[in-house]
Here is the input.
Amino acid sequence: MDNQVISITPPDTPWQDIEEYIPDGYSLDHTWLSYLKNDGTQEPISGPCWIRAYTCNKNKDEWGFIVHWLDIDGNEHFHAFPQRILHEQSNPIIGVLASRGLRINSNKKRRLIDYLSSFDLPHRARSVSKIGWHEETAISRLYVLPNEIIGSQGSEEVIFQPEAYSPTVESIHSKGRLEDWKAHVAEPCNDNSLLIFSLCSALSAPLIKPLGHEGGGFHIYGKSSKGKTTALQVAASVWGSGVDPSSSDDSFVQKWSTTGNASEAINMAHNDCLQVRDEIGTCDEKKFEKMIYDTFGGISKSRMDRSCALMKPKQWTAWLLSSGEISIRQKIEEISKKPMLDGLAVRLVDVPIGKSVISNPHAQPPAQFVNNLKKACGLSYGTAGPAFLRKLLAWENNCHLLSYRLEEKMKTAYAALTEDLPLEETQARVIQRFAIVAVAGELAYDFGITPFTPQEVLQAINLIQNRWLSEDSNKPEEIKGLIQLQEYIQANLSNFAPFDTTSEGMKYYRNLAGYTKTEAGEKLFLFPNETMRAACTGISQN
Here is the structure.
């Protein structure tokens, strides 16, 4: 809960609940926080500010405080800070308060720090340092957003207090009404399978933890100017600003171009929520594969603090929607010069866009339709995700029963998506991800969040799933093995010797790949064991 604005009228005293705890030697009115000098005069320090409560986390090992202040226009704000910030030499709290409207006398910064350090309050609140699901009791959970706590808090106030700068503080917010978003963003997605899929994927993120599934996501790829970024903007508008990331720093859509440490912070900031990254081509190739592994690994690197003590690692659950002109598989194989491992392909699923993202522009020229939709994503946003969460916890607030009911729906969706399909284990795992999206789409319709019926959602997901299955890399191992063998033979035809080649003739085959033999009019290729292993690299030979 950061930088919230509360309109007040001058006669009100917003600090009246803590007035008796204002430190001795200081006075507070609607104009100034002042220090009382020995001669009885008042020395202005800053605009009005005060501490409302102290915070601590569940383990009682990270304390903080909630500061309220009035900006230059008299609006009230509040922000939760970690306690240690008062003791940092650079005084970062001064910069935060000043940038958010608190007038501070430049030569009284130290006095302001002393004032904030001198409070002795009995009021307490429980702080959480990351968004997402948090256990409230043995049977209930809260979902924390930067500007809203969803779920029953019981007798204890809960407040979001990030350890450091969190990008979601700025990007997760709302504009307009849910009805506006439904009319101008969701409705135009009708009859556009990839847009429906992207939107339902965005709503899937909070279901991962209750379902007990690992993090994952989807990568939309295809040639430029096909609407990939538009699909990401539609998804982003569920949680925050869906404005084009190239035109605003406020967008929930982020670029792949970031450092490893920054990527870790982004993962933490989007815990149990959607993460949207556009254009894999902007990512440093050397870091790309590691960045993906780290994202879905769900845990930060081991680090030591300044005293060389091992710090507690940070943890998160990642749900990612990505885009690029080429697939994740192609980019990784171009970098590593070897086949991508199935474990990574299962986590971040390549989704080809086909001819175009837009299949039905609803009687508009496609370019105009895209432009109107992109504009709408920047005008109405951030209402669907929180509304979905509120409805989800109203549907079932017992965390054990919620998991059970979601799992039952997922089994039904999975059965519908896999009917009559002969699947391998890795394919089945991927289709479980598609089933999670189907569950989110069904619930969103039942909750009145989106206009797509469960049948329409399932139809859209089926189409996307079939595109994925049609890719050569997603065919069964036997077919992939045959394709790979065929390519190996074509690349090494001159290195196959006739089976009856004499010893003298064998000297012309320095890089022998195998032998050829004709039986019953058909040409056979015979492989030694070591050549067969080389030809089938990355393919199970069981």
Notes: The chain has a mean pLDDT of 86. Residues 66 and 80 are 4 Å apart (CA to CA). The first helix runs from residue 92 to 99.
